[in-house]
Amino acid sequence: MSSYGTLIFFYGKMGAGKSTLSGQIAREKGAVLISEDEWLAALFPGEIKNFNDYMSYSSRLKPVLRSHVEQVLLAGTSVVMDFPGNTRKQRAWFKDIYSQHNIPHELYYLSVDDDLCLEQLKQRQREQPERAQFDTEEVFRMVTAYFEPPEESEAFNLQIIERKST
Questions:
Q1: What pLDDT score does 138 carry?
Q2: In what helix (H) or strand (E) does residue 40 lie, and over which residues does it extend?
Q3: Is 85:9 a contact under the CB 8 Å cutoff?
Q4: Among 102-106, 119-123, 147-151, the range of highest mean pLDDT
Q5: Domains in the chain: how many in total?
Q6: The whole model's pTM is what?
Q7: DSSP of 116-157
Q8: How far, in Å, are 6, 97, 129 from residue 9 at the CA level?
Q9: What is the DSSP string of 80-124?
Q10: CATH code for the domain in which residue 139 is found
């Protein structure tokens, strides 16, 4: 058994509850929580105005964090990354962090139906008005179209959490 920390990351639609779950897991495991939204807002305030801006700035952030996260994991501290792992390319970035040293990892798949995600996005619009321009049904549909479910060949330690609207 290694003394490395565990890398924890997520796959799920907008509004599925990835950020809420990431905070909960970080608290329960005494892990470092790294939120992409918080880092982007702090480093590039007011500069992300649309989805293309998000993609551009996110791709600038990841190389900076990659080595840092790996070092934290190698030091024995678990890291919860509130970053999307919704495409094969995004998940390859996480795999690049943990695979060289066989660092333990967990991919949480939040299987949440569209209606519940949209309900939760509306709630988030009310609670976080600064995100309202992105937390729309139109952006939800656009982003969801890019989803690529994890395949067995990717060999992730997958945890599935299912939620449906009531």
A1: 87
A2: helix 36-43
A3: yes
A4: 102-106
A5: 1
A6: 0.89
A7: HHHHHHHHHHHH-GGGTTTSSHHHHHHHHTT-----GGG---
A8: 10, 11, 26
A9: EEEEE--SHHHHHHHHHHHHTTT--EEEEEEEE-HHHHHHHHHHH
A10: 3.40.50.300
